[in-house]
Amino acid sequence: MRTPLLIKKASGEMEPFSSEKLKRSLQRSGAADMLIDSILRDIDSWIYDGISSRKIYDRAFSLLRKKTLGTAARYKLKRAIMEMGPTGHPFEHFMGQVFKRQGYNIEVAQVIQGHCVTHEVDVITTRDFNQTFVECKFYLSQDKNANVQVPLYIRSRVDDIIKYRKDLPKFAGYTFFGGVVTNTRFTSDATAYGECSGLKLLSWDYPYGNGLKDIIDRERIFPVTALTRLTTPDKQKLMEQGVVICSQIFEQPALLDILALDSVKRQKVMEEIQALAEE
Q1: In terms of residue numbers, what domain contains 50?
Q2: 129-160 residue pLDDT tens
Q3: What is the pTM of this model?
Q4: Which ranges in the chain belong to alpha helices (H)?
Q5: Same domain for 208 and 232
Q6: How far apart are the first and last CA of the chain?
Q7: Is 133 in contact with 153 (CB distance < 8 Å)?
């Protein structure tokens, strides 16, 4: 039995390579078993001691992309969310679309009055006389987690907003909530405080079975950054115009006009979007 090879994580730490871990990530992308076995054999024959986890990911992604565009796009989903930076504003609009596609009326990047001061709110969701004020915490590193200071701060802001709105005739009969969304994870203290204080928390994998990655895949709300047929500048141009999810382009192909793509590339982009919608 050979000694497990060590790979370098993004944090610089070394850990044993796990083919089972890679297999699970490929399974989550929806790849077929035969394709997964083929990729695992390729990686096993190519990997070497000290290789970075990024290089392993890039090779697996390249092999997936040659076979199926939709699966490849889903495989890079977590990294695609990171590519919505560096400002975090596209992530706010993305979350607005996530809530909108689940049946909420949404407002993004609003400045609203509280009892004591005004507040900038990333996303306001409204449905059935329930209104939630959502803060979006976007991080550029998967190793950065939202700590307890985040929900502590948001709880105080939300309470100030609720204190003002609950007595306005416009909002008679409404119930108000606060929420925090992050593209990474919460620390255990952040989760404990959030739950105890009544905040709605949503992270990459929390709540279990209904985290951000689960919602995206179930509802097919894929960010435009997941597309493999567009360049990074192309994706930035779309996001600057508020085009943050693939469904927007699927429903209005004319949104691609700002990119001045030739007919062949445009068709390939639409085929990839179609694959994401159907696979």
Answers
A1: 6-67
A2: 999 999 999 998 888 999 999 999 999 999 99
A3: 0.83
A4: 19-28, 33-46, 53-67, 69-75, 77-82, 89-100, 149-165, 188-197, 212-219, 232-240, 246-251, 263-278
A5: no
A6: 38
A7: no
